[in-house]
TrEMBL record:
Residues 69-114 form a coiled coil. It is a single-pass membrane protein. Belongs to the RNase Y family. The lineage of its organism: Bacteria, Bacillati, Actinomycetota, Actinomycetes, Micromonosporales. NCBIfam families: HDIG, RNase_Y. It is an enzyme of class 3 (hydrolase). This is Ribonuclease Y. Residues 404-497 form the HD domain. It is found in: Cell membrane. Keywords: Cell membrane, Coiled coil, Endonuclease, Hydrolase, Membrane, Nuclease, RNA-binding, Transmembrane, Transmembrane helix. The keyword Hydrolase applies. CDD domains: HDc, KH-I_RNaseY. It comes from Micromonospora zamorensis. The keyword Chloroplast does not apply. The gene is rny.
Length: 588
C-alpha cells in the first residue's frame, strides 16, 4: 500500500466518524422531542422547527457525506485502478528495463568479445609487422655488414697491392740510383774528354783564324762586320718579299671575303625583277565609253583633269585610255577615280569630285598599308608617323622602272645580311638602308638631291645621327664617314645594279655604251677598249711603249672622272687599264 492509499483510507474514516456523530445527535434530538412539553408551546414549536431544520440539514449533510463517500469510493476505485495500472506499467517498465539491461549486457559482452578478438588480431598484426621489420633490419644489417666486410677486404687488398708497388718502386729507385751513379761516372769521364777536345779545338781554331787573317789580310772584327752587313741586306730583301706576299694575300683574301659577303647577301634576297611603267592604262568595256568620258563639249575630261591633276589621253587605241602624270600617287588616284566612274556609269563634274575624294582616301589607305607591310617585313617597329606616310607614297614611285619601296625593302635585307656577316649592329644598318631613298617621296615638291632631302627629313623626325649620315652620304653628296654609310652604299648598288632590277630603253643603253668606249678610246696611248658586263666594267688596253705603270694609273683615273661628269647611269662602272709587255723569240 502506497501513500496515496493511506491518505484515501484516512479521509474515508474521518467521513464515517462525522456521519456517525451526526446520527447520534439526531437520535438524541428525537428522544428529547418525545419528552418535551406540549406542542402548542411556541418556543417548543420554534425549537422543533429549528431541530427539524437541523435534522434536515444533518440529513442533507449525511446525503452529501454519502455522496462524498461514494465519490471517494469511486475515486478510491479509480485510484486503485490507476494504481494497478501504474503497478502494471511499473512492472512492465521493470521488465523492459530488465530486458534492456539484459540486452545491453549481452551487447556489451558481444562488443567486449569482438574488442578482445580485434585486439588480439591487431596484436598479432603488430607482432607480425614487428617480426617482418626486425627481419628486414636484420637483413639490412647483415647486407651492410657483408658490404663493410667486402670493403674492408678490398681495402686490405689495395693496401697489399700498394705495399707491393711501393716495394717495387723502392727497388726501381735503388736500381735507377745505381744507374745514375754509373752515368755520372761516365759523364764525368766524357766531360773530361770533351774539355780536353775543346781545348784542342780552341787551339786549332785560333791557329785557323790566324792563318785566315794572314791569307785574307782582314782582322776578325772586319770580317764580322762584312758578314753582318751581308746578312742584314739579305734579311731586308727577304722581309720586303715577305711583306709584299702578306699584303698580296691579305688583299686577295679581303676581296674574296667581300665578294663572298656580297654574293651571299644577293643570293639570299629573293625579289621580283619586273619593272613598272610610268604611264597607267585603263581598259574600257567599249569605245562608246570614251565619248561619255569626254562629255558634252569636253566638260567631263576638263573637270577630270582639273580635279585630279592627271592628263587623260584618249586616242585611237581600242577600248583603252592613257593616264599620264609626273606624280605617281596622283596618277594612281586618277586611275582609280576613272575606273570607279566607268564602273558606275554616271560621269559628270559633280560625280567626278565625289569619286575623286573616295579614290584619294582609298589610295592613302593603300599607301599606309604598303608602308606598314614593308616595315613589318624589314623588322622596324618604332618610326615617326610622318615617315610612314612618306614611305607609303613610294609605293607608286619608280626609279629606272624599279619600284622604290620594294627597292628599300631589298636594300635593307641585303644590308642586314652584310652586317650580320661582319658582326655589326644589324638594326641600325637595316634602318639606314631602308630609309636611304625616303627623299624621293618629295623630289617633285622640294628642290635638291633626294639624299639631302631624305637626310633633312630623318633629322627632323628624330632619327639617329648615324642613320642621317648614311642617308646623305649614299650618293657621295657627303663623304661617307661610318661603316653604316659604306654598307648602305654597297647594298644600294647591289639592289639597283642586279640584273633585271632596272631598265632603260635600248637606244639609251647602246648610246651609253658607245659613249663609254669613245671616252676611253680618245685618250693617248689607248690601243683597244671593251665595255663589259652591260656597261658596268670597261677594260682599256694600252700600248706598253707609250704608257708606263704610272701613266696607266693616271689614265684609269681620268677615264673614270670623265665618265662620272658626262654620263648618267645606275650603280658604278669599274675602269680597268691593262698594260702588257710581250717579248717573242724564235728558237731555230
Amino acid at each position: 500500500m502506497n501513500a496515496f492509499d493511506v491518505v484515501l483510507l484516512a479521509a474515508v474514516l474521518v467521513l464515517a466518524v462525522v456521519v456517525i456523530g451526526a446520527v447520534l445527535v439526531g437520535i438524541r434530538t428525537l428522544r428529547r422531542m418525545g419528552a418535551a412539553p406540549a406542542p402548542e408551546d411556541p418556543a417548543f414549536i420554534a425549537e422543533k422547527d429549528r431541530q427539524e431544520q437541523s435534522l434536515a440539514a444533518l440529513r442533507t449533510a449525511a446525503d452529501e457525506v454519502n455522496s462524498t463517500i461514494d465519490v471517494a469510493k469511486s475515486a478510491a476505485a479509480a485510484a486503485r485502478t490507476e494504481a494497478a495500472a501504474a503497478k502494471a506499467e511499473a512492472k512492465a517498465a521493470r521488465a523492459e528495463a530488465r530486458r534492456v539491461l539484459d540486452d545491453a549486457r549481452a551487447e556489451a559482452d558481444t562488443v567486449l568479445e569482438r574488442a578482445h578478438k580485434q585486439a588480439e588480431a591487431d596484436a598479432e598484426q603488430l607482432r607480425t609487422a614487428a617480426r617482418r621489420s626486425g627481419e628486414r633490419e636484420v637483413a639490412v644489417l647483415a647486407a651492410t655488414t657483408r658490404e663493410q666486410a667486402a670493403e674492408v677486404e678490398r681495402r686490405a687488398a689495395r693496401m697489399d697491392e700498394r705495399e707491393r708497388m711501393h716495394t717495387e718502386e723502392v727497388e726501381r729507385f735503388a736500381e735507377r740510383e745505381r744507374q745514375l751513379t754509373a752515368a755520372k761516372a761516365a759523364l764525368a769521364a766524357r766531360e773530361s774528354a770533351l774539355a780536353q777536345r775543346e781545348a784542342e779545338l780552341t787551339e786549332s781554331e785560333e791557329l785557323r783564324r790566324r792563318e785566315l787573317e794572314r791569307i785574307a789580310g782582314l782582322t776578325a772584327d772586319s770580317a764580322r762586320l762584312e758578314l753582318v752587313e751581308a746578312i742584314e741586306t739579305s734579311a731586308k730583301r727577304e722581309a720586303a718579299l715577305l711583306v709584299r706576299d702578306i699584303e698580296s694575300d691579305a688583299r686577295n683574301t679581303a676581296e674574296q671575303r667581300a665578294r663572298h659577303i656580297v654574293v651571299d647577301a644577293i643570293q639570299r634576297v629573293a625579289s621580283e625583277q619586273t619593272a613598272e611603267s610610268v604611264v597607267s592604262v585603263l581598259h574600257l568595256p567599249g569605245d562608246e565609253m570614251k565619248g561619255r568620258i569626254i562629255g558634252r563639249e569636253g566638260r567631263n575630261i576638263r573637270a577630270f583633269e582639273s580635279v585630279t591633276g592627271v592628263n587623260l589621253i584618249i586616242d585611237d587605241t581600242p577600248e583603252a585610255v592613257l593616264l599620264s602624270c609626273f606624280d605617281p600617287v596622283r596618277r594612281e588616284v586618277g586611275r582609280l577615280t576613272l575606273e570607279k566612274l566607268v564602273l558606275d556609269g554616271r560621269i559628270h563634274p559633280h560625280r567626278i569630285e565625289e569619286v575623286y575624294d573616295l579614290a584619294r582616301q582609298e589610295v592613302e589607305q593603300l599607301c599606309l598599308r604598303a608602308a606598314e607591310d614593308a616595315l613589318v617585313e624589314v623588322g622596324i617597329t618604332e618610326i615617326h608617323p610622318e615617315l610612314v606616310t612618306l614611305l607609303g607614297r613610294l609605293r607608286y614611285r619608280t626609279s629606272y622602272g624599279q619600284n622604290v619601296l620594294k627597292h628599300l625593302v631589298e636594300t635593307a635585307h641585303i644590308a642586314g645580311i652584310m652586317a650580320a656577316e661582319l658582326r655589326l649592329d644589324v638594326p641600325i644598318i637595316k634602318r639606314s638602308a631602308f630609309l636611304h631613298d625616303i627623299g624621293k617621296a618629295l623630289t617633285h615638291e622640294v628642290e635638291g638631291s633626294h639624299a639631302i632631302i631624305g637626310a633633312d627629313l630623318a633629322r627632323k623626325y628624330g632619327e639617329h645621327e648615324d642613320v642621317v649620315h648614311a642617308i646623305e652620304a649614299h650618293h657621295n653628296e657627303v663623304p661617307p664617314q661610318t661603316i653604316e654609310a659604306v654598307l648602305t652604299q654597297a647594298s644600294d648598288a647591289c639592289s639597283g645594279g642586279r640584273p633585271g632590277a632596272r631598265r632603260e630603253s635600248l637606244e639609251a643603253y647602246v648610246k651609253r655604251l658607245e659613249r663609254i668606249e669613245e671616252i676611253a678610246a680618245g685618250k693617248l696611248g689607248v690601243d683597244k677598249v671593251f665595255a663589259m658586263q652591260a656597261g658596268r666594267e670597261i677594260r682599256v688596253m694600252v700600248k706598253p711603249d707609250d704608257v708606263d705603270d704610272i701613266g696607266a694609273a693616271v689614265l684609269a683615273r681620268d677615264v673614270a672622272k670623265q665618265i662620272e661628269e658626262e654620263l648618267t647611269y645606275p650603280g658604278q662602272i669599274r675602269v680597268t687599264v691593262v698594260r702588257e709587255s710581250r717579248v717573242t723569240e724564235i728558237a731555230r
